[in-house]
Amino acid sequence: MIITKQNLLDTHKRIKDYIHRTPILSSQLINEMVGAEIYFKCENFQKMGAFKMRGASNAILQLSKTEKEFGVATHSSGNFAQALALAAKMQGIKAYIVMPSSAPEIKKAAVKGYGGEVIECEPNLKARESTLNDVVNKTGAVFLHPYNDYNVIQGQGTAAMELIEEHADLNCIFTPVGGGGLLAGTALAAHHFSPNTKVIAGEPMGADDAWQSFQKGEIVPQTNPNTIADGLLTSLGDKNFPIIKEHVEDIIRVEEEEIISAMRLIWERMKIVAEPSSAVALAALIKEKEKFQNQKIGIIISGGNVQLDKLPF
């Protein structure tokens, strides 16, 4: 599927009443530290605390009346689970969320708080998929993939659209990459609305399947990821990888201590709550800051859903 400029404009118009237009913040100290002018698009202030609300809303709003009657289903250990539960509640439809038993209790509680029905399974992909199939077969609910779905990708792209609308002269936009929905959406937004803006991803060294895939030119599945950035543990999807391959400039890998240091910097200097996955984009910029001196740079802070009793600093 070719996603056009008009598709993205239609998407933003469709979802704007169901999402927050999140603020764009900056920090003089971080600018001086990096040697660049940085604009942080704060999706940690989005409804349910992450950019995922954009894609979930767009996917649900595209369903037919009949499909909505049966509800929606997904498998997710975190932010998409919460986003889909809330987006479904706002449309008055049922949401069935398959979550691994190892998912943080705070995230399970949030899904239930948004009216989602949590179905627990063993913490592996095979169990997640087979449990989801059972749920779909039993309920008739429509499966919405957390990131490998064109409607979801287009929804995620609206964060960068808003950023570009306010700062039309960005040299680069940095995002984290896990499944690739945010990165693909951001790359499409830059391609259509600011073609001179390069899109760069940050990725944990301990979960670097996107970097490997990018180097090899084909999807390399994620195996045994190990990182504090718990939102970036999934493999790339076959719908978003071709977009990433065509429109993303680079993927920069970062170490765990670099992620923690960037996360701490955001908390201390910007006085905002950002989750580890969010800090990966800033960590990538700091790691290679010599390349970006005196440039104007956008960073998407992807979310702020942190388990406060497990802070890494």
TrEMBL record:
GO terms for biological process: D-serine biosynthetic process. PANTHER family: SERINE / THREONINE RACEMASE FAMILY MEMBER, SERINE RACEMASE. It comes from Marinifilum breve. Its cofactor is pyridoxal 5'-phosphate. CDD domains: Thr-dehyd (cd01562). One of its GO terms (molecular function) is magnesium ion binding. Belongs to the serine/threonine dehydratase family. This is Serine dehydratase. Keywords: Lyase, Pyridoxal phosphate. Residues 16-303 form the Tryptophan synthase beta chain-like PALP domain.
